[in-house]
User: What shape does this take?
Amino acid sequence: MVPAMQVRAAVIPAAGSGTSFLPATKAVPKELLPIGDVPAIQIIIDEAIGAGIEHIVVVSSPTKPGIEQYFERDDALIGLLKDTGRDEMADRLEAIGRDWRVTITYQDEPLGLGHAVGCGRDVVGDEAFAVLLPDELMGDSSLLAQMCGVCASTGGSVVGVKKVPLDEVAAYGVVAPSGPMTDDGVIPLTDLVEKPEPSAAPSEFILIGRYVLTPDVFGDIAVLEPGTGGELQLTDALRRQAARSPLHGVLSSIARYDTSTPLGYLEASIAFALHDPDLSGDLRTYLATL
Ligand code: G1P
Assistant: This one.
């Protein structure tokens, strides 16, 4: 009998030093760089909330105080906005953390993604939880919502996947399917490999930074040895977990933007602006002049 599982918490690893975006990230954490006027991490949070998540667990670094500041309520600023008739903006500020809870926890050393997720263990507790990598922005919440459903129905962990050309797989975790895909894109998996050479890749399905994990994975994280790049890899913990319990992939059919490079970040900024009714008309006109 599969236990009923509601996914309430989402871990967002945000302790990285953002070196690809220096010098901007010397003062501003990468996760707070804006897409339009919304910090990237807020887009990730909105995706999680849209999938039914109630508790956001940010794994930050003590060297990034701006992250805490973003979540702290600022009554003086809200009051000033209200006094000057900018109620809509005051509402936006008041909404940060109003209908959801945020807990900030810390990764003191950059030991890898597996280690970062493990830093959320005490906060998450003994429940299934989501992991959202903030470098990857999704068009909406539907993939994560479907993944939560698959976790509840199978009782096992679930990863979001996308098919890419074989020559791109070396930058990602790659999964090994063990059976056919269902009509709604659910694939049983037996194994995963972090950043394989294309010749050694078990498929062309990559991990796209969305996970719904059962809490026993924290035990697998705790015994991780350094893997690819000398880091404690979440992929390796899932590999251990998959050896004893079901693991599924869900094929994403929604837009995905990898903002880990300045070019990807610009593409995401433009794409989100083109979906914003307040900006799209003028932006299209401007882009047509270039
Ligand atoms: C991480 C994961 C990798 C995944 C990728 C998605 O890699 O380790 O499995 O495919 O995110 O963006 P990173 O980009 O941190 O090197």
Summary: The two ends are 60 Å apart (CA to CA). The domain at 9-288 is CATH 3.90.550.10 (Spore Coat Polysaccharide Biosynthesis Protein SpsA; Chain A).
